[in-house]
Amino acid sequence: MSVLELCDVVKRYGAGPTEVVALDHVSLAVEPGELMAVMGPSGSGKSTVLHLGGGLEAPSTGRVLVGGRDIATLAPTGLAALRRREVGFVFQRLNLVPSLTAAENVLLPLEFDGVRGREAARRAGEALEAVGLARPHDRFPDDLSGGEQQRVAIARALAGRHQLILADEPTGSLDTVTGDLIIELLASQCEAGTAVVLVTHEPRYASWADRVVFLRDGSVVDEAAPAPPPERALAAPASAPGR
Amino acid sequence: MHTGYVSVRLGLLALLDDADMYGYQLKSAFEARTGGVWPLNIGQVYTTLARLERDGLVATSTRDGNGEGGGDGGEGGRTADDRQHVYSITAAGRRELADWFAESPAEGPPPRDELIAKVLLAAAGGSERALGVVTAQRTALFAALQARRRALRAARAAENGGGNGHGAGDGEPEAEGEAGGDEALAAALVQDALVIRAESELRWLDQCEARLLSRRSAGASTRRST
């Protein structure tokens, strides 16, 4: 079963003469363990795909299925639970809480989800280790470099052990060495079975993907995948955050 | 005088600058040093050596019996000849090599790149056609780049002893031995170059797409306003 499925989705913003069609009959499926990159010029609908996939917005027509469930059928509490439990977000703007330390930022969504005390602290610590954040982990976002902040944001997405991670330009303003590391981290999550949708305009990072989907004017114009199919099924299961 | 591509001639001089070698050793060393991407024909090695010798850039000496490098031969009848001729670089050869390392790439018109030509010629036939070409070229280039990335990752995972290869740091195994390390470095440098070249072509295609789209919408709005 696909982790995320968009079935003939149309998304319009506005109405009448100012109406913009962000997605125009798009169908996509993301499988467990797959790293899918979405590329396209600005305004092509890349971010809309992520917003729909994360249940942040609803399609105008068509269906969005996360883990096989149509998000249109979920009550607001169900939708909130889905966003929290099943989907991890890594945004270009990091959305770290400035008054919380790195570790607390990672802990926060775990606590919302009922993971408490030692278990939560252990998972947060493991996730921060996995992304290679230098200690101490009780530093505040303002004291971290851009790359470190992005690592925290990714750790936060990893700690929740989601089946789907949606990443919007996660390499934003990072240098290429740090950017590579961030993408490699996401790719290693896929080896553990997580599906990742990566929006990027950098071929460098998109080339890590199993599949690259190109959008233009709200439609999928093409897909690129290397000749041999992915062999994720053979990957070792023991690759949760940490070692 | 050096045009466009690196000649085997300079490659062999560079190798001989490090150590005297037999013909077959030169072939293997050239391939190892260049990451295995430019396989050499042994015949080409001997003709090049003959020319280098004629030009006074290398000298040969004869060694009898199995030289120290003898373990290397054994392939297809070349050994008899091999055993006798050891090549070494001359002072003139060293000068030639130093000049080449110091020389900067020649300025001139850009090479007639096939990808650039395709897009330019398609653009003359209208935005839609050019966008089609850009899309097709980009997809093909991407697939090749993805395959290369995948091969790189697999190689790295194998190198790291089958671990799943994540975690911080580059964790290069150090106990590889100098020669093996050199070869791995060469291979990594070549792969980097190929990946970066593909990236730059992809980036250019994205730029083409953006320009073509903005021209198309500018065209559409002038049409609407008239």
Q: Which helices and strands occur, and which strands form pairs?
A:
The complex is a heterodimer of chains A (243) and B (226).
Chain A: E1 4-13, E2 20-30, E3 35-39, H1 46-53, E4 61-66, E5 69-70, H2 76-85, E6 87-90, H3 102-112, H4 117-130, H5 146-159, E7 164-168, H6 176-191, E8 195-199, H7 203-206, E9 211-216, E10 219-224
Parallel strand pairs in A: 3-8, 3-9, 6-7, 7-8
Antiparallel strand pairs in A: 1-2, 1-4, 4-5, 9-10
Helix pairs in contact in A: 3-4, 3-5, 4-5, 5-6
Chain B: H1 8-18, E1 21-22, H2 23-33, H3 42-54, E2 58-62, H4 79-84, E3 85-89, H5 91-102, H6 114-123, H7 127-159, H8 178-225
Antiparallel strand pairs in B: 1-3, 2-3
Helix pairs in contact in B: 1-2, 1-5, 2-3, 6-7, 7-8
Brief overview:
The complex is a heterodimer of chains A (243) and B (226). By secondary structure, chain A is of the alpha/beta class.
Question: Which labels suit this protein?
Answer:
heterodimer, A: 243 residues, alpha/beta, Rossmann fold, 6-stranded mixed sheet, 4-stranded antiparallel sheet, 7 helices, 10 strands, 32% helix, 25% strand, disordered C terminus, B: 226 residues, mainly alpha, 3-stranded antiparallel sheet, 8 helices, elongated
